[in-house]
Amino acid sequence: MLAAMPEAPLLVIDDLRASVDGTEILKGVTLTVRRGEIHALMGPNGSGKSTLANVLMGHPDYEVTGGSIRFLGEDVTEWSPDARGRAGMFLAFQYPEEIPGVSVVNFLRSALSNRTGTDFTVLELRLKVMDTMKELGMDASFADRYLNEGFSGGERKRNEVLQMAVLEPELAIMDETDSGLDIDALRTVAEGVTKVASPERGFLIITHYQRMLDYITPDVVHVFVDGRVVETGDARLAVRIEEDGYEAFRPVG
After folding, report:
1. Total Cβ atoms within 10 A of residue 123
2. Would you state the pLDDT for residue 253?
3. What is the model's pTM?
4. How far apart are CA 90 and CA 73, in angstroms?
5. Among 14, 47, 50, 12, which Cα is nearest to 29's?
6. How far is CA 232 from CA 30, 125, 218, 247, in A?
7. What's the pLDDT at 94?
8. Does domain 11-95+169-249 fall into CATH 3.40.50.300?
9. To which H or E segment does residue 90 belong?
């Protein structure tokens, strides 16, 4: 696990550029996330938001062609996804995958052991998971179900919040976690995120709609259009997006 440099921000993205199959998607992204901050990255479909999430976690299908990613003061631009995860970066997926035959509790045991370097027993991990599920208001039977197999959209997203709560990453990146959720599921996920939030942890919540922000108030909002952050402000900026749409923020010319 990395030792944070004094006063180092959690995440510093500096003029980040990335391509897929030779097509540039990220065109110079710059932003900084500090401990205790919740950032919302809002943009239209096709703007490159999910590409940014994948590039931050080191997905091999994306080629970084310029700029850098610094986490806790360390340049992690060339790090593997598992190294970033062990260091304390976490990605909640837009469409979490099913893993038949692997229970939620066994998956979390393996992930937490990898994250911390400690070989937890099944009993130790089960007790930790049960305590966390109780805090999140989740049914205890959830722990023994196969990971995401037969889960509803809301259950998959709640499972992502559970993973985040158990693994305790310093930085949580949430890629369109509100996608496909009804209001009740959205509220449940938002409440879970609020419970997990702490002064030591930072969030980058990537979303298309303002509705997630009805339940989570961000400290900073970034408008993301055509592979760039085109405007940054406080929570009031999300209201402007809702009122004016993303076209109002698209650069002229």
Report:
1. 8
2. 57
3. 0.87
4. 17
5. 14
6. 11, 40, 12, 16
7. 66
8. yes
9. strand 89-92
Residue 200 has pLDDT above 60, yes or no: yes
- pLDDT band with cut points at 50, 70 and 90 for residue 5: very low
How many angstroms separate the CA atoms of 205 and 54, rounded?
A: 13
| pLDDT-derived band at 229, boundaries 50, 70, 90 | very high
Residue 203 DSSP symbol: E
**Lowest model confidence (mean pLDDT) among 24-28, 76-80, 147-151:** 147-151
- Rounded to whole angstroms, the Cα distance separating 235 from 22 reads 35
pLDDT score of 6: 52
DSSP structure string for 33-56 = E-TT-EEEEE--TTSSHHHHHHHH
CB of 204 closer than 8 Å to CB of 176: no
Residues in Cβ contact with 35 at an 8 Å cutoff, skipping those fewer than 6 apart: 9, 10, 170, 199, 200, 201, 202
Sign of torsion, CA 86 103 196 175? positive
CA–CA gap between residue 159 and residue 133 (Å, rounded): 10
